[in-house]
């Protein structure tokens, strides 16, 4: 397979690295996008978008990047905060009354957005529920006790993040997560990204596949992804029903170019993210909120309200290998989106070609 697309002067190393990933058999379908000073300086595509190897991966190929989706759940929540329907620090139970029991009485939206709400996974209350039983899964979170006192520990809310925010939005703002994202966030930011892919866009969606059949069982995060069953089942997540559902923690569908463009504007003082949220919430979004050992990642990590941050980058990745970041050192963004579910070593090699370090970008 040849790598198609373009690179501006000075970015040949990115093309060469991407081509090596293909030549070594580590990639079967992916896109890379790099942005600098407001323009896309790299757009590369390789491999196939489908399991049958009949649709080439193109610049407009949509793919599910798993937890990279969470950053856009955050934006939907913060829009409601800006509108005055929600606050970051009052108990969720003031508007979602049913949620405020079994030790969750003082849980706040900030706890949820920084993965400290004590519900990093769906518990026994959700056992047997279908992956797409949206209401049932939200209700299971209402009935469950937190695994720890909210605010006292840290663990990425691997599958629960979107359902928690959806429940909060429904109760406090009278809007669903999908509605807030698709009707407000997506058009405001000009994103080619969807929670619930519309009929006319389904032909662009890439099929996910395992690099190794044992991959799902080898994950450090596997215990947090077992309930409800199916989030790592390629037959299930490649289905039309899944692609057109809203499972906010993991099933945004988007392109490498869209994610590269988004991250390129993320910190801009006159960019669309700041315009959407206003100066105060934009600052909150990007500021370090908590640094601690994240049990799901299995390492120390610093979370903002929606991203992972260190001295070199603001980033978010997803299980399976997709990642996007803004380089604080080099003032460029990059997105690597893949359909071949494996570790983050491929994106890490692209990062090295750009002079970046992609340590700790996201597992769940």
Describe the structure.
There is one protein chain. The chain has 364 residues and is α+β, with helices and mostly antiparallel strands. It has 13 helices and 13 strands. The strands form four sheets. The protein has a seven-stranded antiparallel β-sheet with strand order 1-3-2-12-11-10-9, sandwiched between helices. Strands 4-6 form a two-stranded antiparallel sheet. Helix 1 (12-23) packs antiparallel against helix 13 (345-353) and helix 4 packs across helix 5. It is globular, with a radius of gyration of 19 Å. The mean pLDDT is 97.
Provide key terms for this protein:
single chain; alpha+beta; seven-stranded antiparallel sheet; two-stranded antiparallel sheet; globular
Quick overview of this protein structure:
The chain is α+β, with helices and mostly antiparallel strands and 364 residues long. Helices cover 30% and strands 16% of the residues.
Topology:
Blueprint: E1 4-7, H1 12-23, E2 29-36, E3 39-47, H2 70-82, H3 109-113, H4 134-143, H5 161-173, H6 177-189, E4 193-194, E5 209-210, H7 215-218, H8 234-237, H9 240-243, E6 253-254, H10 256-265, H11 272-277, H12 279-286, E7 290-294, E8 299-303, E9 308-309, E10 313-317, E11 323-327, E12 332-338, E13 340-341, H13 345-353
Parallel strand pairs: 5-13
Antiparallel strand pairs: 1-3, 2-3, 2-12, 4-6, 7-8, 9-10, 10-11, 11-12
Helix pairs in contact: 1-13, 2-5, 2-6, 4-5
């Amino acid at each position: 397979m040849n790598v198609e697309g373009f690179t501006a002067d000075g970015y040949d190393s990115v093309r060469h690295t991407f081509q090596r990933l293909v030549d070594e058999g580590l990639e079967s379908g992916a896109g890379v996008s790099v942005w600098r000073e407001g323009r896309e300086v790299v757009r590369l595509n390789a491999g196939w978008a489908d399991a049958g190897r009949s649709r080439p991966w193109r610049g407009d190929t949509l793919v599910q990047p798993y937890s990279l989706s969470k950053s856009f759940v955050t934006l939907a929540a913060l829009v409601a905060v800006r509108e005055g329907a929600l606050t970051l620090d009052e108990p969720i139970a003031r508007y979602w009354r049913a949620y405020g029991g079994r030790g969750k009485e003082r849980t706040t939206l900030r706890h949820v957005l920084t993965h400290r709400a004590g519900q990093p996974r769906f518990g026994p209350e959700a056992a047997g529920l279908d992956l797409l039983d949206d209401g049932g899964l939200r209700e299971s979170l209402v009935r469950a006790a937190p695994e720890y006192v909210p605010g006292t520990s840290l663990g990425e809310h691997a599958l629960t993040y979107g359902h928690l925010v959806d429940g909060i939005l429904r109760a406090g703002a009278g809007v669903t997560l999908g509605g807030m994202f698709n009707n407000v966030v997506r058009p405001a930011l000009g994103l080619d990204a969807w929670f619930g892919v519309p009929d006319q866009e389904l032909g662009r969606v890439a099929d996910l596949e395992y690099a190794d059949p044992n991959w799902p069982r080898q994950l450090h995060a596997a215990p947090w992804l077992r309930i409800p069953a199916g989030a790592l089942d390629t037959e299930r997540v490649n289905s039309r029903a899944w692609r057109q559902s809203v499972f906010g923690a993991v099933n945004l569908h988007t392109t490498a170019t869209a994610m590269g463009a988004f991250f390129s504007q993320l910190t801009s003082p006159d960019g669309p993210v700041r315009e959407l949220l206003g100066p105060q919430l934009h600052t909150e979004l990007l500021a370090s909120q908590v640094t601690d050992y994240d049990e799901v990642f299995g390492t120390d990590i610093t979370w903002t309200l929606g991203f992972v941050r260190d001295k070199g980058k603001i980033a978010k990745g997803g299980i399976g290998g997709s990642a996007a970041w803004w380089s604080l050192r080099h003032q460029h963004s990059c997105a690597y989106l893949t359909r071949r579910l494996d570790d983050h070593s491929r994106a890490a090699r692209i990062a090295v070609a750009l002079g970046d370090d992609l340590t700790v970008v996201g597992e769940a």
